[in-house]
Design a protein that fits this description.
Elements: H1 2-25, H2 31-60, H3 65-92, H4 99-117, H5 122-153, E1 160-164, E2 167-171, E3 181-184, E4 194-198, E5 201-204, H6 206-209, E6 215-217, E7 222-223, E8 228-229, E9 234-238, H7 246-255, H8 263-296, H9 303-317, H10 320-339, E10 342-344, H11 347-353, E11 356-362, E12 368-379, H12 384-395, H13 401-410, E13 419-425, E14 429-434, E15 437-442, H14 444-449, E16 462-468, E17 471-482, H15 486-495, E18 500-504, H16 509-519, E19 523-525, H17 530-543, E20 548-553, H18 559-564, E21 567-571, H19 577-582, E22 585-587, H20 593-628, H21 634-653
Length: about 650
């Protein structure tokens, strides 16, 4: 009586759960998931009716056993026909031992025992019903984890607008050539990489970088595919073919991430390949050996009892929880990371990242912006603005990065008609006539050349001395400034239990010391050539004791070091080719703070993987022992299988939730 009430209660729970899922999750289901949920619902409703009203109905027909069998077979067909078909296809293709085979043998075996003994068919149906419930949860969980990947796939453009004879024509992005001019209207995706030649707008880069703030672009700015144009009309001159564009490379990276398996996944795959045949033979042995032993011992062999135990053993032994939840955990972790603008090329890299205890940084473009900016103006009598005007005017014809940074700091158009007789002096600076005044702008060598007494500057950076009509007026300090989150990034790595941070740079000792001290980096090495960086990373690798070393670079000049490290992390520069090609992990928004987040995601994912492995194996072993000794029936075996699988899958879904890490 108590068992019947429990069964009825479970069936009611399944029915209510189906109704709730239809209500709250219908929009997120595939057609197949909706169909399977309907099958579960219909089969459960019929089963509940048979359980509650069947006694009276069957009694009305003389309690005909074949009528009862027919009704239960109908329910079995509704709920289990696809599993039977999958098992048949597996046998046909030579892949006999899988979870479908185990469920079919166990459920049909239990059904056969019930027929022979004129017993209860409920257990046989329950095996298949609750297995299908577990399968549905697994399918839905995979769907949820795929959602992040699918959203990322939305960056794929459907068309490109090309202007032909004054008319805008939509073409396939593959048809656009390098140098063509494309038009992107507000609300449209940027289909190819290029340079803005007309217009200005704000771009939504969230799908690429995880960054919610829009990015402003104007004429001469580089623009990458996959962004969404938010405001103004843009005309873009393409610089790459669609197949070589950022969006294509990112999509290819993400789509192929699942092909690179972690050691945990490989272990589980091999484990399942050997485990399933072993438990099948163990179940066969359980059905044959004890009865034979009892028979020759002169005792009742209890054949049906041992067959029942063997069938229950098969149900309990199904490795679904491990086979499904482990890959799902990694898949969800990669999907969750991609949502945050962290592209991980495979679960093997996610697993390696979780063991990282040393993080090595390149300085320029990684911890600093990699561009020169005016950081200070030290002046005498003339105002800062006036000093900057003369310096910018003198430097207006130069393409040197120092000159560009001064012009950018001035921020106004230069009237070139007022600038004459510009003379660049190699390695020293520039001399020019500005508003009829002789202006010298350059380093201390330039000042010495013209016999001008100058003042030394104790600031770190490039010093541009300014003299007007042979009178020293002051100097401008230009430096590569730190990224806004660089200091927080180092602090976050310490919080993520990274034991050592190291900075490698080609800059001089004085500059390297200033940056390392300000950011509180444990070790730094300066004045290194590219080959020196590789040697230094190899030396640091030799010092590792069980942990892993991650190298973080800009992905352009650091490809050899990125490849040599245990894990290469590239600042994606909004999707630079070199970053995507060379690194194992790409940070799409160039934010060093995301490094610690990536490590935390990997550790959370591995923690969940190990939880599922330990929990699943422990429950399986305990249940198999109880079943073999006769202390557990098929009902417990069903819940040990399906219940553990659902719990493991729900635990694996937690890998998706990484935004607050």
């Amino acid at each position: 009586m108590i068992q019947e009430l429990i069964i009825d209660g479970l069936l009611v729970v399944v029915i209510i759960a189906c109704l709730i899922l239809f209500k709250i999750a219908s929009d997120n289901m595939t057609k197949k998931q909706k169909k399977n949920l309907k099958r579960i619902f219909i089969a459960t409703v019929i089963l509940l009716l048979v359980q509650t009203l069947g006694v009276k109905v069957f009694a009305y027909f003389g309690d005909n056993r074949w009528l009862r069998l027919s009704v239960y077979l109908l329910i079995y067909y509704i709920i289990g026909s696809d599993i039977v078909y999958k098992a048949y296809k597996g046998i046909k293709n030579g892949q006999v031992f899988d979870e479908n085979f185990l469920m079919v043998v166990a459920s049909l075996g239990a059904l056969l025992l019930a027929i022979i003994q004129n017993g209860d068919y409920m257990e046989a149906i329950a095996v298949m019903l609750f297995y299908q419930v577990g399968e549905w949860f697994q399918s839905y969980a995979v769907g949820r984890s795929r959602k992040n990947i699918t959203e990322l796939m939305d960056i794929r453009p459907d068309y490109a607008n090309i202007e032909v004879d004054g008319k805008i024509t939509k073409v396939d992005p593959d048809e656009v050539k390098i140098g063509d001019t494309i038009i992107v209207k507000p609300g449209e995706k940027v289909p190819l990489d290029g340079i803005v030649i007309e217009g200005h707008s704000a771009l939504d880069t969230a799908a690429l970088t995880g960054e919610s703030l829009p990015r402003d672009v104007k004429v001469d700015d580089e623009i990458i595919s996959g962004c969404i144009n938010m405001t103004g009309l843009l005309k873009i001159k393409t610089t790459k073919l669609f197949g070589e564009s950022t969006v294509s490379k990112i999509l290819d990276l993400v789509e192929n991430a699942s092909s690179r398996k972690s050691k945990s996944e490989d272990f589980i795959a091999k484990f399942a390949r050997f485990y399933t045949p072993i438990v099948c033979y163990a179940a066969l042995a359980l059905a044959i050996i004890p009865p034979v032993f009892l028979y020759f011992s002169g005792n009742d062999p209890e054949v049906y009892t041992w067959i029942y135990r063997a069938l229950s053993f098969l149900v309990a032994s199904c490795p679904c929880a491990l086979v499904i939840s482990i890959p799902l955990s990694f898949f969800a972790g990669i999907g969750g990371a991609s949502k945050e603008g962290i592209l991980i090329k495979g679960s093997n890299f996610l697993e390696t990242l979780s063991k990282t205890d040393t993080v090595v940084f390149d300085k320029t473009g990684t911890l600093t912006k990699g561009v020169f900016e005016v950081v200070a103006i030290h002046h005498n009598k003339k105002a800062k603005e006036e000093l900057l005007y003369y310096a910018a005017s003198a430097e207006s014809a130069s393409s040197h990065p120092i000159s560009k940074s001064i012009l950018k700091a001035y921020g106004k158009d230069i009237d070139t008609s007022k600038v004459k007789d510009i003379e660049e002096i190699s390695g020293e600076g520039v001399k020019a006539l500005v508003d009829g005044k002789v202006v010298l702008a350059g380093n201390d060598k330039l000042m010495k050349r013209f016999g001008i007494e100058y003042k030394d500057c104790h600031s770190i950076g490039t010093i541009v001395h300014i003299a007007i009509d042979e009178i020293y007026e002051g100097h401008i300090v230009i430096a590569d400034i730190e990224k806004p989150n660089a200091k927080k990034a180092i602090e976050a790595l310490k919080e993520a239990h990274v034991q050592k941070t190291v900075m490698l740079t080609g800059d001089k000792e004085k500059v390297a010391n200033l940056v390392a001290s300000d950011l509180k980096i444990d070790e730094y090495y300066s004045e290194l050539l590219p080959q020196d960086k590789v040697s230094k990373v190899e030396a640091l690798l030799d010092e590792e004791k069980g942990g892993k070393l991650a190298f973080v670079g800009d992905g352009i000049n650091d490809a050899p070091v990125l490849s040599r490290a245990d894990i290469g992390i590239a600042m994606g520069a909004m999707g630079s080719d070199a970053a995507i090609e060379a690194a194992d992990i790409v940070l799409m928004d160039d934010d060093p703070l995301k490094i610690a987040k990536a490590i935390k995601i990997s550790k959370k994912c591995l923690r969940i993987v190990y939880q599922n492995i330990v929990f699943s194996i422990f429950i399986k072993i305990m249940t198999l022992i109880l079943v073999a000794l006769g202390f557990a029936n098929m009902w417990l075996a069903v819940f040990a299988d399906v219940g553990v699988m659902i719990l493991a899958v729900l635990n694996a879904i937690r890998c998706l939730f990484v935004s607050k890490l």
